[in-house]
Design brief:
By secondary structure, the protein is α/β, with parallel strands linked by helices. It contains 13 helices and ten strands. The N and C termini lie far apart (48 Å). Residues 43-177 form the Glycosyltransferase 2-like domain.
Length: 368
Amino acid sequence: MLSILFYTFVLFVCFQLFYFIFVFGKIAFYKQETLSKENVKVSVILCAKNEEENLRKFLPSIINQDYPEFEIVLINDASYDDTLLVMEDFALKHNNIKIVDVKNNEAFWANKKYALTLGIKAAKHQYLLFTDADCEPKSQYWIKEMCSHFDKGKTIVLGYGAYKKIKNSFLNKLIRFETVLTAMQYISFAKMGLPYMGVGRNLAYTKETFFNANGFMTHMHIKSGDDDLFVNQVANAKNTAISLTPESFTVSVPKKTFSSWIVQKKRHITTAKYYKTTHKIVLSLYYMSQASFWLLALTLLIFLFQWKIVVALIAFRFLIQYITFFNATKKLQETDLILLIPILDFFLVAMQLTIFISNLFSKPKHWK
């Protein structure tokens, strides 16, 4: 039995090495493409539900973007705090702000996709750039950098949405590590011609792309997935671009407790089963190899079975992981995570297994 476990361990290590080099290598050694100099007219769309404080804090960073012509479409998704009043206050001071006030609809109650659809219909420009109320562009050139990729048939732009760094917080590092890993996945696959998701914190596409796909109708019944499921549905090798310049990043407010983070991830993970079959298989193999690597490595070391070879394989696996992750995190400006990779890797696998098991018994109902 130990021999079988050993050879299975070797197989998973080989799979991970292949993945680190040939998949994550796409972002680790990626060079940003030449950007278009044309400034397209853009509608920045922001959907908010009970976000009065975040709007006060972060909306000015969007209003003050250095870009010649853009409007901001603020969607109030049936908030019960002062979100609408805050939006109206900003709109009085800035004539490029449009407000869409969404009331609860019995057929689409607490469904962000319904609210977003109304906001997209109200947008006057063809090019749409999406973010969240708790997001802040990392530079005043965020719109320019993201929209410069609408060129040569590219109608979808995938950006990176980081989370704010909090000192002396292990949870914060774990959240950011998971965010980096997810970004490495979807950016690498996009570079390979297999785009499968994007994040609503930093995503752009054209109005034509949205309406040609009948919007969110194929997955309107699913409470989450306005970003990843839509991209999974419409993105392909020809129409998708990525933006990895630091000026195009956004920074969001991270969760501050394990329980709130788990609830958020439960909502996100429920959409994965609706991905295209090819994407589900490859992603499942990766996460299965992650969990199996740790379980088999610990088992073999406990029984001291071929322990010298096992230790050598573990060391080599982490060496290759360090090389690819260092280059990737350097591009994403997250290099402070590098030294903690083994610990973060282990805890993330444990958390993902916990969330997966939890989702078997209870699923989130609303986006907020």
